[in-house]
Structures are given as C-alpha cells and as structure tokens.
C-alpha cells in the first residue's frame, strides 16, 4: 500500500509517496488495531488515567509494525505521438493525386515542426494486385500495426492523407482502440466521384493466341452524380502477332459497346517496341477514318506521328 505525498514541479515530474511494508500480514495488523480500539474504549469508558498516552503509544506501535517507507520518484514526461497515415494505394496514382499527396506531406512536415514535445510517426499504406491477403485500401490496419508499441493515452491524434476510399473503417469509434481524434486530408478535388470497374463475365481459362470474351461494367459509387456520363476509352494493339491480328473484330465490339474513343497501337504483342508502327493497318485493316483515328507508335525514319 502506498499513499501519494507530493507531486513535483518543473519539466521533470518528481513525486513523493509513503509506502507501507508491514512486518506482519495486513489482516493481522487490522486485527491488532481492532483489539486495541476495544481496549482503549474501555479505558476511556472507565475514565482511567493515562488513557490518551496509552492511545498514542499503541498507535505508534501499530505504525512501527506497518513499517512506513518514504519513496521518491523522478519521472521524465514522454512526448505525445501523432500518426500520419499516407495512402499509397493504386487509386492515389490517378488524376494528379500523387502530386497533391506530396504537397500535403511537405506542408505537414513544416507545420508539425513548430509543435514541441511531439513525436510524428509516418505510416505508408499501400496495396497492390499481388497482395492476396489485402482486399482494398487498409489504412486502419496499417495504423494499428504502426501503433502497436504506443500506449493509447500517448496518442495525440491521427491524420490520414487519402482519396477517401478506405475499406477497413471500424464500425464504431470504440473499434479504433483509442480516443484520439482522426482527421482526413482528401487528395481529390471538389466534385470528383469514384467509379467501380466490375468484371461481370470472364472465362475461367483461355489458350494463348485465342480470342476470349469478357464483359466489364462501370458503376457510379454513392456520392457521385448518377446522371453524369461515364466516358470509356479503349487501347488495343493490332493483334498477337503479324499472322494473328484481330484488331478489327475488337474495334467493332468496342464501337458497338458505346466506347467514347479507341486508341490503336500499330504493333502486335510479339513485336513489343522492336519495329516501326504500322499506321496503315490502323485504317486499312480496322477500317477507321484517318481523320478520326488515334495513332500510337513511332515512324520507321522520321520518328514523328502523322498529322
């Protein structure tokens, strides 16, 4: 048992306390105190001389048995911790969000330097298509891992630099595991909304070199303008090889599906970037008007795109 006696001053906290280390177990000490109280009550009831001195003597005896110890503690205060989570997911790489994220981080770094007694912990959260155990942007999962060694009462707050698409938001504030505020700095622009690209139908397998059919749907997520048009552009190559070119069939499907634009790279898959682009094939084989065609690739000699 210990009793606080005095708390300190200044930047370094100093505290004094009285700690009892009795020579006998506490139940025995309390029993002795109870017996003494009964005997002293009888002395006062019979008005015996010296009752007060006997009371003081007995109290000092019990105090000696309790064995009080004066303890001094010097404590150095710990800095508060601020966690800044930077969303590095794939959706952050579009529409200029990477540059805005870098600007926000730089500005935060400069502003946070002015706060004394504050430890800033930067947490980078990223996920790729190769992450089989991560389904989406997991900012709060990475935050919990980064703060595993930080007591909740040291956490001053959390700042998240993100586009707002987070897939592991706790159902309630109690699920956070701390009571510090959470702020979000959105990298998107006013009026922007998110769309979901969903594969409705796709073959479970396919042979290399054979055409495969799949159906893709673009959905407007909640918060966007449902009536706003969804422009879809498609980029293809001429085909798999010089002997296997199916760009004309794909172009017809793209046109019938209502795509806004079609960009054709004038090479096959096997050619990669090793040969000059065949611009004539874009118009002759696919049947696209030269005035409306979107070309890609460089010329054999001049290296310029057609006008």
Description:
With 307 residues, the chain is an alpha/beta fold. It folds into four domains: 2-75, no CATH class; 80-186, 3-Layer(aba) Sandwich (Rossmann fold), CATH 3.40.50; 193-226, no CATH class; 231-307, no CATH class. 25% of the residues lie in helices and 27% in strands. It contains six helices and twelve strands. The chain has helices at 26-45, 51-66, 97-112, 139-146, 247-256, 279-284, and strands at 2-7, 13-20, 68-75, 80-87, 118-125, 155-162, 182-186, 195-201, 215-220, 233-239, 261-268, 294-296. The protein has a four-stranded parallel sheet with strand order 5-4-6-7. A three-stranded antiparallel sheet has the order 1-2-3. The chain has a three-stranded parallel sheet with strand order 10-11-12. Helix 5 (247-256) links the parallel strand 10 (233-239) and strand 11. Helix 1 runs antiparallel to helix 2. The longest helix has 20 residues, at 26-45. 13% of the residues are buried. The model is unreliable at 5-11 and 299-307 (pLDDT under 50).
């Amino acid at each position: 048992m210990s009793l606080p006696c005095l708390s300190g001053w200044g930047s370094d906290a100093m505290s004094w306390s009285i700690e009892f280390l009795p020579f006998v177990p506490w139940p025995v000490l309390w029993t002795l105190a109870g017996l003494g109280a009964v005997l002293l009550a009888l002395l006062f009831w019979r008005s015996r001389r010296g009752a007060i001195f006997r009371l003081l003597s007995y109290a000092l005896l019990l105090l000696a048995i309790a064995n009080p110890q004066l303890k001094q503690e010097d404590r150095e205060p710990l800095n508060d911790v601020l966690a800044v989570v930077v969303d590095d997911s794939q959706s952050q790489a579009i529409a200029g969000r990477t540059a805005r994220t870098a600007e926000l981080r730089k500005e935060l770094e400069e502003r946070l330097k002015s706060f004394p007694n504050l430890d800033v912990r930067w947490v980078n959260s990223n996920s790729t298509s190769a992450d089989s155990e991560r389904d989406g942007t997991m900012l709060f999962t990475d935050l919990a891992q980064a703060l595993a060694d930080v007591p909740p009462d040291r956490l001053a707050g959390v700042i998240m630099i993100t586009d707002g698409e987070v897939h592991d938001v706790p159902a309630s504030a109690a699920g956070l595991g701390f009571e510090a505020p959470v702020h979000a700095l959105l990298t998107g622009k006013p009026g922007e909304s998110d769309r979901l690209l969903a594969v409705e139908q796709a073959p479970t397998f396919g042979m290399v070199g054979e055409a495969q059919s799949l159906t893709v749907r673009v959905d407007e997520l909640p918060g966007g303008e449902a009536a706003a048009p969804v422009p879809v552009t498609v980029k293809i190559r001429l085909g798999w090889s010089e002997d296997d070119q199916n760009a004309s069939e794909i172009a017809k499907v793209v046109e019938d599906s209502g795509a806004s634009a079609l960009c054709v790279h004038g090479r096959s898959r096997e050619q990669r970037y090793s040969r000059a682009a065949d611009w004539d094939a874009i118009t002759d084989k696919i049947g696209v008007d030269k005035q409306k065609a979107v070309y890609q690739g460089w010329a054999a000699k001049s290296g310029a795109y057609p006008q």
